[in-house]
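Regression test attached.
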Amino acid sequence: MAANVLTITLRTVVLFMFWIFFSGKIDATHLLMGLVSSLAIAIGSLDSESEPLSPEAAMRLPERILRGIAYSFWLLGRILTAAWHVSKIVLSPEMPIKPKFIKHKTTLKGEYGRVIFANSITLTPGTITADMEDGELLIHQLDDDSSEDIRSGALEKEIHKIFKDG
Amino acid sequence: MIIIHVLSMIFIVLGLLVLAAAAVGVLRLPDFYTRSHAIGVTDTLGTLMILTGIAGIVGFGTACVKLVFLFLFIYLANPTVTHVLVRAALKSGLKPWTADAKKT
């Protein structure tokens, strides 16, 4: 029960922040309406199957979010370089492409880590995750340079940093 | 203020040029899989530049926060859709184009 209260509180806070940003009105009526609906959704979206958030996990959240933001900026830098690289390829007259499927075994164990990894690969121009089975990814690459970060393990290393506390 | 407006315009025009480059890529690349890569440029570099430009014009406020959420949504939804499309193509047996199979 205590864990449920924690989950509800966290969800309400997040939803309420969304409400404030999207409505942009800070008078009593709007805030109260937002708070009531946030609470209603937080309670209504509880399901018995997902395991409740433990206080320890909740304590780790802020740090993880900060590291996640740091990772996003790192990834953004890589994406910009890759986008520039792909643009150059498609605009050059001889179009030097060497498309092929490559296999990559990931060292990431957690579900979230793997999803972030697969999503980051597809987000980076030049590489697309086509399939993943038991941690083995099937990746389509536009040319050999595109998949450099994946093959060298640089991308995985950055994701490991987010989840280093387990 | 005028400087920010000019900068925003430059960002939007650059974004449009990136979108044009990606469109050229979609037309020139040989098959479905490689074309998906060109789309990737559109939704990363292109949207980033255009949304940055718009954010400069609307200024700091709730509209700006909404643009950030729009940006985050695009960055989450686009790879998912691209992945599902490529996976579906692969499962239905579409053969990928290779450089040594035929010369354009």
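Expected vs. actual: identical. The mean pLDDT of chain A is 84.
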